Predict the 3D structure of the following.
Amino acid sequence: MMRVYFDHNATTPVAPEVLAAMLPYFSEEYGNASSIHTFGQRGRGAVEQARESVAALLGARPAEIMFSSGGTESNNHAIFGVVGAASGERKHVITSAIEHSAVLDPCEALQRRGVAVTVLPVDREGLVNPEDVRRAIRPETVLITIMLANNELGTLEPIEEIGKIAAETGVTVHTDAVQAAGKVPIDVTRLGVHLLSISAHKLYGPKGVGALYVRKGTRLEPLMYGGHSERDRRPGTEDVPGIAGLGKAAELAMMRMKEERQRIAALRDRLEKGLLERVPYARVNGSRAHRMPNTTNLTFPFVEGEAMVIALDLQGIACSTGAACSSGAVKPSHVLTAIGLAPEDARATLRLSLGHQTTNEEIDYALDTIPPVIERLRQLSPTYKKPVTAPAR
């Protein structure tokens, strides 16, 4: 049985080149990067080389890159850090209804502390209207935090337009680019953002390491205290192997992105088209014009998403009902309900996210396997009636 991995938005395999770059810092190059002797300075060299690579991936300066434990920490540091450093008693934050929980949960925590939070709606494609952002800005607004790419839909948000609107009033902008980094080109200057979060394990690097871009001059209160690492922003001994891995992953992404974007998008489109043709009532969620090249999110009415995931796993296909950190949740995806899906349709949805190792043969296998699995599950539903002919799409 073929094994097919269509869950790259949850995590990616560590690239061989990344592993090779990390290995020396687990063994012979074991110095603490904060030590001034030769052992330590070799580690420091690896950290600073990685900082340059990550900065190049984002169009930033190396001094503007702060390493973290991943996207969640980077998001939390951006949100709590900006709000904590802002002056004035009244503070206001703007976000969107489809953000990752690593953004929405900190915003809810701020609300409990008396910070006003505006959660903007999205349209049927999952897009935030920049004019909604403009209308939401108040004199006390200190932060706009809207993701660059949605983890479930793949939708790419109009961050460049939002950045221009924010610049008119001097509001700080943060974007969660965890899903976008390494898949689409990013230039922090063009986007107009002050802070941007990434995570290594989404771009073929190791788990447990990430980065936060902090534009020079942005006021940011530390989350933790106890040392002077990362320019006094994040204390603690640097994870040299992980940081070296993130740096190599960033290098590889820059080398391969253009070619891989085109290849993966073509595979995604063939998979999507084939499923729409072969599975009655199937439909795509989110924008098909503004999205990442590797992601498709499809609703297959009359069948539970988790049942599909389990049945497909038994056939060798790994996919997701949405965000991995939300699997097992009783409630339907907040992203899918935010774009207007009824709860029963939100629960009948699969996310298929492709990656570097995805092949034409795997797409063929998926197209031969997924439709009969869905039809078999549908036969167990009392509400399903097989159409005589497939409906027009």
About this structure: The chain has a mean pLDDT of 95. DSSP finds 13 helices and twelve strands in the chain.
